[in-house]
Amino acid sequence: MSPAAARSFLIFGFLFAIVPFTGLYEVTIMKILCFALFACAFNLLLGFAGLLSFGHAAFFGGGAYVAAHVAKVWGWTPELALLAGSASAALMGVVFGLVAIRRQGIYFAMITLAMAQMIFFVALQVPFTHGEDGIQAVPRGHLFGVIDLMPTTTMYYFVLVVVLAGLLLIYRTVHSPFGQVLKAIRENEPRARSLGYSVDRYKLLAFVLSAALAGLAGGLKAITLQLASLSDVHWTMSGEVVLMTLLGGIGTLFGPIVGAGIIVLIQDYLAETGAWVTIITGGIFVVCVMLFRRGIAGELPRLLALVKKPS
User: Fold this and answer.
1) How far apart are CA 34 and CA 62, in angstroms?
2) Are residues 56 and 255 in contact, defined by beta-carbon separation less than 8 angstroms?
3) Of 37, 33, 29, nearest to 211 (Cα)?
4) Cα-atom radius of gyration of the chain, to the nearest Å?
5) SS3 sequence, 26-59?
6) Element spanning 147, H or E
7) Strand partners, 143
8) Contacts with 36 (C-beta within 8 Å, 6 or more apart), sequence order
């Protein structure tokens, strides 16, 4: 890891680690962290592999449902529940990926959306999801059977550690030889294929890894908020994660975190306005697209460089 990246991770960890001492509402910050991991998982696919998926809600919601079910009904500890959610999402990623990766552009996006809608209707009908009621009162349980996660502060630090681990995995993936091949495929797929790379295999691996991390984020959200619902697997959730990533900055490590924070805060604090929250969110998105073509995190370094540049 480069010194700059190490400093960024240290600053990120420090800023979020002191949240319980600042008087901020910890549950809201935990929600932001869960969606930040979801957005970063999506950005791994879009920003570094160039694959736009409109079906990532299937992995997020699927991971949430599975983690909630095994924690509440089977009595699994939270770490095992999260592993189950991630594994189920990875399995769905294999199925989705085998069907979708042979297509490109809008065809890839539409296939993932169609398959995600199938998962939504399955979630609406199967008994264990409890339909429109969702899985409620999900127990947070005891980490490794020892640490009680019911206290909000304890749960907060558990969420922070899981999200940091996910971000480190994404960073390591992007900066590995595997990640460099993904970037080559994003820039020029025919050339990467001509160099002898098995493009479909690389795209499938990226898709499955992104799905697994999205499932981890969904499971973490279900245990944190003690709820898994149809909104987690609805197509609008796929739209929200696209918005978070575009707003924060495609192809940046911390950009999706910024985007997730903005969207979650808007939704929470403007919830009383009803439908206006959607209009406001859309307006902010339009402004950011017009002024920050590479997202907030993507444009900030350029703006800072302009400010520091001597006249």
Assistant:
1) 15
2) no
3) 37
4) 19
5) HHHHHHHHHHHHHHHHHHHHHHHHCCCCCCCHHH
6) strand 147-148
7) 147
8) 163, 256, 257, 260, 261
Q: At what angle do helices 26-49 and 152-174 cross, to 10 degrees?
A: 10
Q: C-alpha 79: how far from its chain's center?
A: 18
CA atoms of 19 and 13, how far apart (whole Å): 10
Distance between CA 63 and CA 85 in Å, rounded?
4
Residues 208/101, Cβ–Cβ less than 8 Å: no
Three-state secondary structure call for residue 235: helix
Instruction: Kindly report the length of the chain.
Output: 311
Residues 181, 191: Cα–Cα separation, whole Å: 11
Please tell me what DSSP assigns to residue 250.
Answer: T
How far is Cα 21 from Cα 153, in angstroms, rounded to an integer?
10
CB of 297 within 8 A of CB of 249?
A: yes
pTM: 0.91
Q: Is residue 156 a contact partner of residue 29, using CB atoms and an 8 Å limit?
A: yes
For residue 21, give the nearest of 140, 156, 150 by alpha carbon. 156
What residue type is assigned to position 194 of the chain? S
Measured distance CA(207)–CA(106) in Å, rounded: 16
Residue in the block written with tokens 């069907």: 99
Q: Which residue carries 């924070």 as its tokens?
A: 261
Over the stretch 170-227, which tens digit does the pLDDT of each residue have? 999 998 999 899 999 888 888 888 888 888 899 999 999 999 999 999 999 999 999 9
